[in-house]
Amino acid sequence: MKQLRFLLLMLPLLLLAGLASAQKKEITGKVIDQATGLPLSGVSVILGKDKVGTTTKEDGTFAISVGPNIKNLTFSSVSYTTQTVPIGTKTSFIISLAASAATEAEVVVIGYGTQKRSNVSGAVSKYKNERIDETPVSRLDQALQGKIAGVNVQNISAEAGAEPKISIRGTNSINAGASPLVVVDGQITPDGLAFLNPADVESVEVLKDAASAAIYGSRGSSGVILVTTKKGVADKPKYNFKNAIGYKNPYKLYDMMTTKEYVNLLFDEMADKMTDSTVNQATNTVSSGDRAAYIIENQLRGEATNWQKQSIREGLFQNISLGVSGGSKNARYFISAGYQGDEGMMNKSEYQKINFRIKTDFDISKRVKLTINMNPSFANRVTPSQNFTNFWRMPGFLPVTHTEATAALSRTNPLNASIKAGDYSHLRHFSNINYTGLMPDGSMWTGANISPSGSAQQNPRSEVNRTDFKSDEYRLQSAVELNVNIMNGLNFKTLASGYVNYTRGLSFAERNANRDGDLNYGIFTNNSNIYLLSENTLNYTKTIRDHDITALFGVTTEKTNIVREQTTGLDFPSEDIRTLSSAAQIDKTRSIGTKNILGLNSFLGRLTYAYKSRYLFSSSLRRDGSSYFGPGNKWGSFPSVSLGWVASKEKFLSNVKFLNNLKFRGSYGATGNNRITENAWVDLLYGSNYPYGGSSGISNPGLITSSSILSNPNITWERTFQKNLGVDISMFNNKIGLTVDVYNSKTEKLLLQQTIMAFTGLQQYWNNLGSLRNKGIEIELNTKNIQRKNFKWTTSANLSHNRTTIIELGSEAYLLNQGERAEVYRNQVGRPLVEYLGFKTDGVWMSQTNIDAARAAGLTSTLPQVFTPGGLKLVDVNGDNKIDNNDRVVLGNPNPDFIWGLTNNVGYKGFELSFFVQASHGGKLVNGDPNYNESGRSIRTYNQNRWVSAGFPGDGKTPITRGTGFNWMLTDYVVEDASYLSVREVNLSYAVSSNLVKKIRLNGARVYLSAQNLYFRSASNYRSLNPEGRSKSGPYSSVLIDGYQRGSFPIPRTFLIGIDLNF
Amino acid sequence: MKNLITLFFVSMFFMTSCKKNIDRLPLNNVAIENYYKNAAEVQIGLNGCYAGLRTTLLEEWQMTELRSDISLMGGPSSNSVPNREKSDLDLFIPGTSLASIYTYWSASYANIRNINTLLNTLAIDYDPTTSLLKKGTTEIVITSDDLKDLSAQAAFLRAYHYFNLVRLYGGVFLIHEPFSGSGALEAVNINRSSVDDVYKLIVADLQYAAENGVALNYSVLSNTTNNAKLGKVNSWTAKSLLAKVYLTMGRKTDAIPLLNDVISNSGYGLVTAGATPYADVFSISNEMNKEILFAVRYKAGGIGLGSPWPNTFAPELSGTSIVNGDGDGFNSGAYEFENQYSAADTRKAFTLGIWPTATTAITSSARRLYPKKHITPVTLLDDAENDWIVLRYADVLLMLAEAQGYSLASLNLINQTRARAGLGATPLTIINVPNDQRFADSLSRERKLEFAFENVRWFDLLRYNTTLPAQSENAVTRIRNHFAFMYTNHYGKYPNPRPTLLEIQAYVTTDKLLLPIPQREIDNNTHLVIAQNPGY
Question: How far off is chain B from A920, nearest CA to CA, in Å?
């Protein structure tokens, strides 16, 4: 269309040209990238129909002499849309080429090699975004959220630099690791997504189906993320400089009540109850503790502390990078340096990293190529010693530091004799004191020996300020790769690669930081992980007429060396001397050291065949042998096969003009998982010492089988078999591209910690038992809605749905697991992986009369506190008139029904606006916050409209404060909808026009504004701050106990302004 | 070219021969099958089993003292779940899924497994048909003396756990062989044993330990040569515990000779010297004194062997005024019980601390009684020196009194501990203790005061129903009266709507004297129906 219009405009010129004299003339010009304005080298300049005239030089320029009968010039380059322009009378041209989308020439990385996009028959998603580093997040994985169908990235913590939870096509494992394998330039790097500088990333490919991932064999069952970093092209040096700066603040905080507001509420409730004949007036009073708290806040201080704000600050975000790339014909380089500073919204939460990358390619000879890649990086992490919950849990009456008045009050208790104004105040400073003051109802009240709060919780501000939890992370990824072209089509590649990750940390707490009388302590940690890889592959490529054949054979060996050391020193003479040698004492209880070496040997092979690029076949096999398993069980085989049919190339579709590409794909493959505890095949003894002898005794060494998980010498690989069917369609001049994949996978012989009877002395047994099914659908849609010269609009959308079902758990029908608050998670055969099991409630018991009536009708229960007025009213689901554990039903599951992401890019002249919406629908979560007594005192949501008495039952749904009536955590009262929709990123940029740029001797200049989480909407029954937040430690590290949230951290809203210069 | 291809195949060969890369053994730990090859290694394993006793103690006071009439859950207003669970135990409304009930259970069985593994290695098996331990042929290198000593200690530890389990949970699962490999899966076919069968194993183990254990006199044990044996189970320890088992089973006549044997021949005795003899029994500078028949050992100094009790039991929010690092305030004393010490009784001041001050009025809601006998100074949180005493000589004396029943001889046994407590001037006589009932009540009270906060009272309450039938209150009545006494000052302070006194008293039934079998054990067995204890 565009070209046609162009031609029409040019028509008069063409006519004129025809009249011009018919001699050869010299034409010069330059070809640039339409998007970036960078010069393009190696572009073919074609004269007329098919005669190659020349190619552009490194600076994008060309010069050619044109005969009189040549009317048009055509510019063509791989991965750009070919453009033809009429010559006319012009002798100088500036041609800007647009990048082509999903063209046949596009190459995707598939593991141990690359493949033309058009020949891919598995499910491989590619994500390529030049501006991925303009996303205001400090980690690559966070930047990938919602961008790729089937890849679920969940920011379970909003702290600076925190690791999100990533899953590809659901959960394929129960007790073995279920996160995807990350491979950076061929090297398996478990935390690659954390330390990479997004500016260095060329593309991210995700191998989603088992057939594609099978080449990674034993580690492919949770999908594979392949990251390819940028490399240099032969050209004069090109420099790129980016600098962005911005800030972060919380999207939303809790609506807190001050102590005054809360006590006023209590007095209002008391007044209400006085008019209610069902209330025993003898007990109708406000507790002396609440009265005392009221006096402190209202009388002594005159203000309340908003503890949330004591935790939160405006965090600074900074991203600077400098890159240079270029090279000569025989040596090319890409060098970059980057700095990212991410100050968390919470005080003492910081993540800073510095990255360097040097990637060089040398052509030693015509047949031998050498690549050297080095990526040192340094990160510095500061973590707060207290979580956000511990801040908002603090009652408002407590000052951060003592005023003269509060200190004087504290001192009336002899225990606090030394307290003075300016000291951090603690709840206990107000305990056991005599209070006198005016109450909200106007009465005078005096109480002796009163404690406004029974909580032993420390003032979190004091604790955070007195502790420094810091760690330095040093990483070096480096690789040497030698590529030898043995003969035409046959290449040998040998790769030696190493990834070293060393973390040195010191968590230092000053005296009395955690509890009074605590010594100061420093926990020194030294952790190192060394991954060594040796990879040797033979690659053969041959085209015989219509037959394209490739073959790959390789052997790899890997060794992983993991050392963890922790030494705790106590009683340092001064807070300023933090060296281990100056500690008066070493605390053995908090000192540990472990070392593990793991080995993996592998053979791999792959054969692909394409006939006329129309019928595609690919098959691979990998055999892995691992030290994770015992003798006889070490080796596993992981085969795969996939087929493709490019229907659009068939004759019967060749006259369907709008159809550019129609491809059907089908695959079947096996992948494995060995990410279990090391040495799970052998029972181990652990140190357990004991003293004997007179008086205090002498410690004697002891050993014990303290592990609660019994080993199993026969365990071996769990394997996932996955079927994938996919279709790729592009239509209307590639303006609409659609990819749909459906899959069905079954994981067998799960590496399962099978629950066994606890009276065996053990709680679990490692077994290959049971199976899981994952079924799902993924849709990716890319459209170019408007493609005019000055106005462009493209959209890309993805949507995925996955359901994980348990097919079998050995002889067990179900497993029941408990979380930290005894809430129950059920894993039942034939059902979704995790379901919340609990009691259904029907509002609250409105009055004792209601309870008596129900009991008179025969309702009974042996459960504690079922019949409490104002408490939750449990539903007798099975109708046996007895409320017991048999009435527990499924209350939901954590798995979203579907997740989607939608990016729109709108460009007008130099302006470009992209906005990205991301959402998750249908998952449920268990909210642990209501469990806290403090929630009811501080957060308005929890005590608005609550039950007060039979006469004032509130909304009939909100129970009386926690602690009375049936345990909320066992009911649907705490199960909430985890759905959300977020305007995750908005990026507005302006590219300074090329003429202007030239004047200041640049090749390109852009300024941009970027924002994250401008709008966030959570479900109406969700009561906390961040529906993405999840607890992942303690019992929640198991995938079987999923969906619990406690003290979610606020959603960060980030604004960023940046500049991008090319010269 | 050729060279490169050769290089490729050479490197391939190197790879395939690199079997070592994947044949690896653990680096930090010992694989169990390679261990226990000689006496020294069995001793090291046994040390681990002793250390395992500490894990059950973490919950034991909740299962015993908290449910008894001498202790309360210190913070009634707290709604945090761990605290609430302790309140539930205190109030006799424990849910079947209560965490501590399961933790105590699984920790006991975990140690039983370690003990069974050792006994198995030593080829000592329990034969349920004869109810005896029998010796097989062991493959390890060990002298018969070592074998006897080590197996006696292990058998005692197993009996110790089962004795606690059977008293707390009733007929438990009787496991006397270690499970390994897939055998552990077969456990679903094992159901609960009868209380009688559990006691048969306990008696067999203790008889074996009494016969085979070291029977050195305390004076010899405590000399410099044998000093290192202090703290290990010996024959006297086994005899004393066996006597308690017999008493609990109602076999008084079987208990008497054992107790007399310990009194006459063991060399153990009451600590009576010094100005504060009762306090000296617990002094951390006098550990393993002649009164201590058995204690679970703790050792301070940041070596991971310290005791947590000072920090667990000191009053909440007491800062550093009682112990460094504050206290949790659990296991708070019941006020009714402080009144029962007579004025001259020196034990009171050492047993009960009063917080915030000694003069805080009894009506003050801030007032707390804390178990002072467990409080010793700590440098580090949960790192105190004091041992947990399980069996001491005073118990032997009072058990003998209990076994013999009302007689002057029995009263004189009681008078020994009373005299040590400063009550020598007012001995019990036939005149002031004129009948069976007064005897039963006096003995019960004396044990309560002597062994307060030593996890003894609850088991005494259970046992008196058999051993002191003449007592004026049985266990259920006693606990109900305890609630009545404490309601105004304590239980009545629970947040509204709190249970009324009548409701709390109704919670206490004979059924509820047993804890429930942890729900997990019932839920996880899909093969057998595991009967829950009645009332749950």
Answer: 32
